[in-house]
Amino acid sequence: MGSTITLDRARWLGFRWHRHGLARRSREETLDDLLLLGFQDGRQADARRSLIQRTSGVGSTSVAEALSPGGPLVSMWTVRGAPHAHRLTDLDLVRSALAPRESDEGGAAWVAAVEEVAAALRAVVTGPTPKPEASREVNGRVPASLVGRCERCDADHVPDALFRAAGCRARIAVGPGDQRVTMLHPAPEAPRAEREKGQGRQDRRDGDPRLTLLEAYFRVNGPTGGTLFRDWMGGDTAAVAGLWRELGDDLVRVRIDGRRHDLPEALLDEVRRAPEAEGVVLVPPHDPYLRQADRTLLVPDADRRRRVWRALSGPGALLVDGEVAGTWRHRRQDREVTITLFDRLAPARRAEAEESARLVAEATGDRVPGIVWD
Q1: CA 29 to CA 242: how far, in whole Å?
Q2: Contacts of 31 (CB under 8 A, 6+ apart)
Q3: In this structure, are residues 157 and 66 in contact, taking their beta carbons and an 8 Å threshold?
Q4: Is the alpha carbon torsion for 119, 121, 124, 127 positive or negative?
Q5: Which of 97, 100, 186, 216 has a CA that sits 20 to 30 A from residue 230's CA?
Q6: CA distance 141 to 372
Q7: pLDDT tens digits, one per residue of 142-169
Q8: Residue among 324, 329, 327, 371 nearest 350 (CA)
Q9: Using one digit for the tens of pLDDT, what is the confidence trace for 26-61?
Q10: Contact (CB, 8 A) for 210 and 55
């Protein structure tokens, strides 16, 4: 990498806004990289809430119905061990990218432990299985050294981080169940033609799936740094440094408002020419636009950052022309969305926010909510 290139923050925002599919209702191919990286899911249906702000459906399936153990989108414990929605066709690539290696910090012992628990999970989860039941069954199939005391549960079981990493290796889909019990399912194989289409995305000549993820991350987010990518992926410091060395001369050093990052040179002109971000959207707390960003660059004001990225029960974000302009919460029981503004918002932009709030409810089949402006 040579000298540092200065880029305009507004262009960076515009690049991300369009690559994150927030500029307009997205075409199918716009979502390819985003779904490879995954939409974080949870009990509040965050993946569907993120998707519906970008598209009305996945193929011929509505967003409300697209995420299921049978696909076309499947939720699995992948990035950082959190449930993420991916295309069924991308599961094997994602699993390979996130598979532990003996060269990682955990070493051979962690690799062996993950494979041991994964084998037990494949034997136990042969159909819809409540997670507590699967956990008890796995306890009896793995060495006692892999089972520990959990003070929170007041029970002995395989540690959750290990259980989730093994679930990814075992291709276990995660789905909600009755009475707030998480259900586990064996993820089906994608049709052969669709699998081959997914495999075709891994086009690096060395075939490293981690590089495939990193390249998608750059295409979606533009300038980024190794620490940001590592924190997003939940990966190993040395492994991420190795990926940066692999890209080597393909990268250029850039500066945006004093923040230094790297960018593939092939994307430089696209970032420089990116149209400005335009539109008003409500995104959930773990939306990729928030999760895959330099927080200081996205929200320069420290007090606002604290209000957006709370450690527990964080709110969603109101995005206006690429900027985080406020927060929001959906009280489903009260059929109410409360939007808290950081600054004044013109009536026309409020109308756009209210339309986005309607989509929040549509994603989960709820009735149109009332809007409370705070």
Answers
A1: 29
A2: 21, 51, 54, 55, 58
A3: no
A4: negative
A5: 186
A6: 52
A7: 999 998 878 787 788 899 999 999 999 9
A8: 371
A9: 556 678 999 999 999 987 778 999 999 999 888 889
A10: no
Q: pLDDT (tens digit, 9 = 90+) per residue, 67-76?
A: 999 889 999 9
Domain boundaries, the chain: 5-21+202-272, 46-193, 280-373
Mean pLDDT of each 10-residue bin along the chain, 374 residues long: 88 96 71 96 87 90 90 95 96 96 93 97 96 95 89 84 97 78 90 58 67 96 96 91 94 96 97 96 96 97 96 92 97 90 96 94 86 92
The token duo for 162 is 């290990």
Burial 263-296 (b: 16+ CB within 10 A, else e): bbeebbebbeebeebebbbbbbbbbbbbbbbbee
Strand 259-264 versus strand 251-256 pairing type? antiparallel
